[in-house]
Amino acid sequence: MESVKLCSSPLYRPKLVQREGMASVMAFCSFSRATLISQQRKGSTSVTKTLEKSSLPERKKVLVPIGLGTEEMEAVILVDVLRRAGADVVLASVESQLEVKASSGTRIIADASISDCSDEVFDLIALPGGMPGSARLRDCEILQTMTSKQAEEKRLYGGICAAPAVALNSWGLLRRKQTTCHPAFMDKLPTFWAVKSNIQVSGELTTSRGPGTAFQFALSLVEQLFGESVAAEVGGSLFMCAESADDSHPRKEEFNKVEWSVDHIPHVLIPIGNGSEGIEVVILIDVLRRANVDVVVASVEKSLQIMTSQDMKIVADKPINKAAESVYDLIILPGGIAGAERLQKSRLLKKLLKEQELAGRIYGAVRSSSEILHKQGLLKNKRVTAHPSIISKITCQIGDNAGVVIDGNLITSKGLSTATDFALAIVGKLFGHARARSVAEGLVFEYPRS
């Protein structure tokens, strides 16, 4: 068995990956292919011709099943990353309805019912974890039959978090396979075959530990489906770039430090629109709610249902006009170019942001949404970070070194793979480092001890 390392990034440092017969994931750098695939999905003729002339691998079919209590970070990261790689991903509900309430309350609408997928052949079946989500997957006879056939026919399958122990093990699909899972479920794995690695590849089976290892899990599956170069390019688009892990690239930087603590449960608004980055939205919701933050997700669209940048459907808690009736300790704008444009068009959201600044309350943005704050004059004399595509549009001090930058009551992030650090930085500011570290441990996300 060979031990290799994924890229060592100051933003995301994985542990050793235990694997059998699979090449290492390369240093993540370019996002050209992910961009082409995204445009191809939206029907760009010129891009389609470019792809036809290229040597891109054939499309692969992937099934990601979800049920009541599925871990939303794992499900959304799996779907998002695999679609960026060019996979044809079906998000299937094992419930009687397509709308599924995930473990931290995110409402996700599946693409299809599992019964509609029973006669399909998939190149990969990947199970997200969460409880009782993993048990709901385990108890689905259709999914059990499909996954058992997948294993028998030597096609790829896998699970993350509780799913390997609760579902795959119950179905007898871990026999003589080295397996990992969430630390809380390790005692339910066959003792001799249980390993404590973030990613474990054993033949056709791939397993992983939790929400904090979901990017690694998804990229490992991308590599197995499409090859090292594609995994490298998709990883680059997620900002999982290989850089030296030293003090010049810290997780976060803070300037003009002020206290964020409040004497009540923090009230946070996350506005979303069509084209918002699903990964960022879900990570923010999941991490903050784990820390006991009252999170309100508000749609700036006419409908509560929004379509994310990678074509996943998420249902907001309220329309923005109803959400605006309350006062928030923190307003966070998720990224996504199209999503940021939709947020920018909301006059009510602009009003809320201006009031937030004037009242000295906290506000922040991920990725491309920093431009919204810039256009409203909310970044004056502030140090920020943002997605490279909009850095040149922001006329203020730019912090290029860290993935997360805090300046007084403002917090910004580069996005995607830095979103977890961004959310944990908020938890740390509101509740202290100990609470942030506790949440990180539950995610199986590496976080500084002090």
Automatic annotation (TrEMBL):
<dbReference type="InterPro" id="IPR029062">
    <property type="entry name" value="Class_I_gatase-like"/>
</dbReference>
<dbReference type="InterPro" id="IPR050325">
    <property type="entry name" value="Prot/Nucl_acid_deglycase"/>
</dbReference>
<dbReference type="InterPro" id="IPR006287">
    <property type="entry name" value="DJ-1"/>
</dbReference>
<keyword id="KW-0677">Repeat</keyword>
<dbReference type="GO" id="GO:0005737">
    <property type="term" value="C:cytoplasm"/>
</dbReference>
<feature type="domain" description="DJ-1/PfpI">
    <location>
        <begin position="268"/>
        <end position="427"/>
    </location>
</feature>
<dbReference type="GO" id="GO:1903189">
    <property type="term" value="P:glyoxal metabolic process"/>
</dbReference>
<feature type="domain" description="DJ-1/PfpI">
    <location>
        <begin position="60"/>
        <end position="224"/>
    </location>
</feature>
<dbReference type="Pfam" id="PF01965">
    <property type="entry name" value="DJ-1_PfpI"/>
</dbReference>
<protein>
    <recommendedName>
        <fullName>DJ-1/PfpI domain-containing protein</fullName>
    </recommendedName>
</protein>
<comment type="similarity">
    <text>Belongs to the peptidase C56 family.</text>
</comment>
<dbReference type="InterPro" id="IPR002818">
    <property type="entry name" value="DJ-1/PfpI"/>
</dbReference>
